[in-house]
Amino acid sequence: MPMQPSREDAWVLLSEYTQNESLRKHALAVEACVRAYARKTGADEGLWGITALLHDFDYERWPNDAHNPTEEHPAAGSAILRERGYSEETIHAIVSHADYTGVPRESPLDHTLFACDELAGFLTACSLVKPGKSIFEVEADSVKRKLKDKAFARGVNRDDVRKGAEELGIPLEEHIAFCIAAMRAVADELGLRGNQRGDQVTSA
């Protein structure tokens, strides 16, 4: 069996196709959340992390505003991933995270990627409107309230956030708190430490 591409390989691929810094940070945020769930459940953290890191790597080049199920994102990216030697488990999770592809989510990885994608974006938005622009200022109960404000972070699909927690079989507030903690652990990479000191970590 050929060796699977490494996390470093995945980062190089992401950087090749994604120039937008916000999209790169979104990839890192989703990676942090999905990796944390892998650790919690005893899954393959490397495989899950790479899948999350690359879930939108083709989005900047092929944004697929028309939601074509077989062209542009994520179909275009899946072909590239297959050529580069990524596993079918990774490719299936990435394709199934977009409902419009019609590919059903089946594995724990499929469900976890879907559950973390929109929520990670929403948590970033919640962080950036805080006085210190920090993930350490974000709490689960306030995030739940923000989800009801349809004028805030309009690009985030609220139904997907709720459906994601349902697919994981855990309460929404618990899922939010878990992802906040995961993102706090990589706050510097995400640019979301704000004015918090490195030793100043609060609980979710």
Q: Would you give an account of this structure?
A:
The model is unreliable at 198-204 (pLDDT under 50). The protein is mainly alpha-helical and 204 residues long. It starts with 6 loop residues before the first helix and ends in a 14-residue tail after the last helix. It has helices spanning 7-17, 21-41, 45-53, 75-83, 88-96, 108-128, 140-147, 158-168, 172-184, 187-190.
Alpha-beta classification: mainly alpha
- Outline the low-pLDDT stretches: 198-204
Rounded Rg = 16 Å
Percent helix among the residues? 55-70%
Alpha-carbon distance between the two ends: 42 Å
Major pleated sheet: none
Proportion of residues in extended strands = under 5%
> In DSSP terms, counting alpha (H) and pi (I) runs of 4 or more, how many helices?
10
Overall shape: globular
Listing every helix as H and every strand as E from the N terminus to the C terminus, the arrangement reads: HHHHHHHHHH
Please outline what is shown here.
With 204 residues, the chain is mainly α.
What attributes does this structure have?
single chain; 204 residues; mainly alpha
Task: Annotate the secondary structure layout.
Elements: H1 7-17, H2 21-41, H3 45-53, H4 75-83, H5 88-96, H6 108-128, H7 140-147, H8 158-168, H9 172-184, H10 187-190
Helix pairs in contact: 1-3, 2-3, 2-6, 2-9, 3-5, 4-5, 5-6, 6-8, 6-9, 7-9
